[in-house]
Amino acid sequence: MANEWPTEFKDLERFRTWALPTEDARMRKRLASSMIELTDYYRTLLPRMEALAEQLSRFSIDDLPAEQKPLLYLGLMFMEAAVSVELFKGPDVPESLGAEHMDVLSETMERRLLAS
What we know:
Blueprint: H1 23-32, H2 35-45, H3 49-56, H4 69-88, H5 108-115
Helix pairs in contact: 1-4, 2-4
């Protein structure tokens, strides 16, 4: 991850450790987080998601500058937090086998982003 943080989103830099490049890492972060942490993340990012999406839409996924990648990862992590806060009411899927039994495979986009 780049050391530079996009100036327009300095207010989100405290969530730098939540900007994880793979789906598996994001899922594991969600599972390891408390509902207090997930809710704080969700409530902080929710009003910034439109600006974040607008910022990222200026670039193609193949040409996404390194300093912008954390924003993409924060947005993807937001989706992990959102299902926990809005749907599950907990870090894991209720009444399920449990995410620890899952292996998440990296997708094409993640491989492309990690390679550049």
